[in-house]
Amino acid sequence: MVQASESESRKLLVALRDAMAEDSAGQARLNKIVKLTARSMGSEVCSIYLFRDTDTLELCATEGLNAIAVHQTRLRRGEGLVGRVARFNQTINTANAPASKGFRYMPETGEEIYSSFLGVPIQRLGESLGVLVVQSKATREFSADEIYALEVVAMVLAEMTELGAFVGDGDALSARHQKPISFEGLSAQEGVAEGAVYLHEPRVVVTNPIADDPDIEQNRLEGALDRLRVSVDQMLSDVRSGDSEQLEVLEAYRMFANSKGWRRRMEEDIQRGLSAEAAVEKEQSTARSRIGQSNDPYLRERLHDIDDLSNRLLRLLTGQGDDTGAEISNNPILVARNIGPAELLDYGRNLRGIVLEEGSVGSHAAIVARALAIPLVIHAKGILTEALNGDIILVDGDQGSVHLRPDEGVLKAVQDKIAMQRQAVDRYTKLRKKPAQAKCGSIIKLLMNAGLMADLPSLQSSGAEGVGLFRTELQFLTQNQMPKRGELVTQYARVINAAKRRGVTFRTLDIGSDKVLPYMAPQEEPNPAMGWRAIRVGLDKPGILRMQLQALLRATAGQELSVMFPFVAQYGEFHGAKAELHRAITRETKLGHELPSNIKVGAMLETPSLAFAPDQFFEEVDFLSIGGNDLKQFFFAADRENERVRRRYDTLNTSFLNFLEQIVERARASNTELSYCGEDAGRPIDAICFAALGIKTLSMRPASIAPVKHLIRRVNLQDVKMVINQSRDEGHESVRSSVLNWVKNNA
Ligand code: PEP
Ligand code: MG
Prior knowledge:
Bound molecules: phosphoenolpyruvate, magnesium ion
Largest sheet: 8 strands, mixed
Mean pLDDT: 88
CATH topology of the largest domain: TIM Barrel
Low-confidence stretches: none
Number of helices: 27
Distance between the termini: 84 Å
Shape: elongated
Structural class: alpha/beta
CATH class of the largest domain: Alpha Beta
Number of domains: 4
């Protein structure tokens, strides 16, 4: 047996590189690799298995097994020793393969005469690409040195596979990243889009996995590590002292960047013939496959740190920055692990769609995507390892699915869907200037929800009569530090100017729950949606509320101010918030500032309790806006962010409609303006039902205005009310199907 020493390893890698450099086809290259590896390792057999699809491994080249088995022998992930190596991304080393757990005999290979078996995963960043195996007749376990040597070869193979070095005959050899692949994720913003992949953080491509001179690589690694440590220290000193969470993360980074074990392992890889960047990636892959199996959330979070530091190191070594020079096409679809709201705003409306591996429906990025009306699919697991810049990609935000490099059939189907949606948009454009007047003569006021300056142009294009809900917290969420009062005045004044005298109803900060400001210490609460949020924070810590009210008074000086408080659960909270407003008015008057010409003060009705508030509350409040997203979650006790339950209870559920009717009645009795601004107001069937129940103002996403108007104009609301009543009388849980059927036949 030849010793798998460091110098032997290096020689093998150099021979492999030379073999790769020859102008030969994928199969010929693989044949050379198995021959060279078997010789260098002193083993009778060396074989390469690659995945031909996500679940099937195929023997693609062998030295020592029957040649006839090549491209014939296939194993499922987890089947036999080879399948187990791939499934668990872990090496198997055994002196007696047939006696080992999971062994499966493949007669066509002729492997029965080989007793010892060493299989190592061919993996890149924890993703299994195949298995590299050596086998011998002698009954012995392979040494730690030999295992290491084979792992280094597998690493090089993984890089070469990634670079498409084995493109050739047979499915398992054709380049990855060429086949169509679909992902089932979750919808976070509806809409369908076709475009080209634009990776938010492109992967660093290691083009030189094998190096000639370990000393040079060693120096490169040391230089890059030094620079990495300096940049982590710099980040640490940049963090403002109060931000303990960020400090904690960076301290963990610093510890890792100084880790002797990490450095030693990379140095050993380099001594075996890997380049510095290949060594970094090998350790990153090993950490991924080790930690990736763990269910411990703390460890998984650390994996994120390791990935981030390794990527920084790779960028330092290769000189590839975030910007790899990839051009943004004119139809970019952003693909990322996760993204912050500020980064998303930088891309702005240029994006056709967004696909995230992680993310959540309630994340800030999702809120921004919704505000920009960009289709968003989250939880598209594995897309980052598959997608390359420029790949054709289809995002179906209605279904929550993504198709990468789609085949003709899928492409055609989605293009048809996009064309139909465009036709509908064209049809709707004609409606823009027409009123939302139902056949019975009732006029419904359609307003839009907004939260960013970027939303305001939609006021014109959608045909909305004004902004019914301006979520002020979005501006706070997208900044890294608390905005100053002057900045707020400017921002609100810009919003009002852009609205060109159409009214804007500002909602004061609704933070807490899922909306955590980056510069405020997060509260550990068992149930944040029912916790310290919105007006509760505003009343307990009135600093920000006061600043906001003052800014609103100044921004609307001389014009009408319409302001409402979020999440008011009882009369006293409204009273308290209104008292803050009056204090702000007194202060402004004392300072000699001009006041708004008129001030309307409203409350959001988001908790059932407010519907039962004393008459005095209804007398005092100028207007009420039903925040159906929250109201529904508390009415049905079903978390709006929990995918398991959030669609379980229909908005047109009879109980909910009965409740809404009571609210309408109380508002009517006290002559209080009433609107509905939850997401459901933007669904045409729901909208006509709300209107039929007597809610005459609806506020929704701009994209929903036209479809809602279109349906309102085709129905008689008294008829809709009759259908609702009849369905309720018949004891239906929800009136939806009755109304839908009626609309199909009558509208
Ligand atoms: C609501 O709860 O319906 C609402 C409009 O407010 P948000 O979605 O911002 O909580
Ligand atoms: Mg709400």
